[in-house]
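Trying the structure run again after the queue cleared.
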Amino acid sequence: MVYQSYLETPIGFIRILSNGQHLYNLNFQETNGPEDPDQITEWTKTQLAEYFEGRRTSFNIPLLLTGSEFESKVWNTLREIPYGKTTSYKLISEKIGQSNAMQAVGAANGKNPIAIIVPCHRVIGHGGDLKGYAYGFERKKWLLKHENSLLI
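Done. Tokens:
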């Protein structure tokens, strides 16, 4: 069974999907849609609202991350990036023991199925440049400013 909720945020609607036990997808949408919520989607919605209000810096939601072994390594490493901090594709590739895999790390980062909670927006270029973001450069910039990790 798929359960679905939407949250309107300062940077667009977020669609939240649960299988009844785990959050498995969270992504930005241009509009909202029909809802069929469960405890996980509503719990996620509450925690995200607190995040956008500046009252939450971490999440405690059961996640189901489905991907290749490499993608899972990258996504688990993303989850270790603290609120208000950034890291680079290069540092992530070194951390997972594949120091020349920066492009593959970028590709896995772009396939992250759970935006914000698995903080792919906290990954920047080695020289400090913002690089891309699957949900748009402006959203990435907004999220980093919101977390006080981008001061421009």
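The chain has two domains: 3-52, 69-146. Worth checking whether this holds up in the mutant runs.
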